[in-house]
């Protein structure tokens, strides 16, 4: 399932080395991409669910953004190979 | 601020696509929804919705899972086991519990104050209600969809739980206020389209010899009832085309808009009648 693969990529991005607060990484991603997910949904929800919402709401835009972060060296190459 | 109404999403397997269409209509009409009661496939959709997913998100997830599972009742299996073949050889045929346990964890779904899930005590045929925030969501979802003869019942304390539809297909008895009830009709005839043997068997059973009695009566005076008809589709159809699934979604949306706009005009529920975009 495409969405679930993307969800894993997003989780891997949020939990990468050096990130202390995965939840705020996800919130920043929502804001950066202007995904319009209500803050009440983001607040207090498990990171898996937030990542799922981002994958469903953003789809290809999120994928392209993560690809760019890989190119820029912000996140490791293995982010692309999420099962 | 409009006063929230409750929502009941009934049982009906693959016909759950009608529910998603109705949710789209509810969103567009700005109808505030309070508690959501779900049975079987209705429980799955109610869980997604009360966790914060929009109808578009649920539809996307369902359609993606459809390629692997063929039926929303097996959505969890589509997430956690590799393919339909595994289902056919019996890996996930018997129990929904393990796939749901993994799926609830993987998707980060949680019980919440807006959600009610209805299962049924196999022995007494009385309803068992999962409500609040401190129960095992995967057990509730597995039990609520455990149609006897198809899926294994779920152990819950000293009870053995089966599909909530065995108690009632559209249980409105738990609603404290007016509710919108999304009721999925039964198959009443065999399909003219080619079917796989399993789907044909279950279609035949639904039309001529239902596996279990499923009461359907609801209080039409108190509630707004949206009845969805698809008389040649049985709940346990496994090979419906995406086109037919989307057709149910679109019909659920259009019929939902019609019924809900009338209910708003009649003052039975609150919402914005002026908004009615076409389905996409």
Q: What is the average per-residue confidence, as pLDDT of chain A, rounded to a whole number?
A: 89
Low-confidence stretches of chain A: none
- Number of DSSP-assigned strands of chain A: 0
Question: Which two chains touch over the largest interface?
Answer: A-B, 19 and 19 residues
Q: What number is the mean pLDDT of chain B?
A: 88
Explain what the structure shows.
The complex is a heterodimer of chains A (83) and B (280). Chain A is mostly helical and 83 residues long. Chain A has helices at 2-14, 22-33, 39-42, 47-58, 60-71. Chain A has five helices and no strands. The longest helix of chain A has 13 residues, at 2-14. Chain A is globular. Chain B is an alpha/beta fold and 280 residues long. Chain B is built from nine helices and eight strands. In chain B, strands 1, 2, 3, 4, 5, 6, 7 and 8 form an eight-stranded mixed beta sheet that branches. In chain B, a hairpin with a 2-residue loop joins strand 5 (154-156) and strand 6. The longest helix of chain B is centred in the C-terminal third of the chain and has 24 residues, at 242-265. Residues 276-280 of chain B have low confidence and may be disordered. The chains are: A mainly alpha (83), B alpha/beta (280).
What is this entry, summarized?
Chain A is mainly alpha-helical and 83 residues long.
Key structural traits:
heterodimer; A: 83 residues; mainly alpha; 5 helices; globular; B: 280 residues; alpha/beta; eight-stranded mixed β-sheet; 9 helices; disordered C terminus
Secondary structure layout:
The complex is a heterodimer of chains A (83) and B (280).
Chain A: H1 2-14, H2 22-33, H3 39-42, H4 47-58, H5 60-71
Chain B: E1 5-9, H1 16-28, E2 33-38, H2 41-51, H3 55-69, H4 75-80, H5 84-88, H6 97-107, E3 115-121, E4 127-131, H7 137-144, E5 154-156, E6 159-163, E7 179-184, H8 197-208, E8 224-228, H9 242-265
Parallel strand pairs in B: 1-2, 1-7, 2-3, 7-8
Antiparallel strand pairs in B: 3-4, 3-6, 5-6
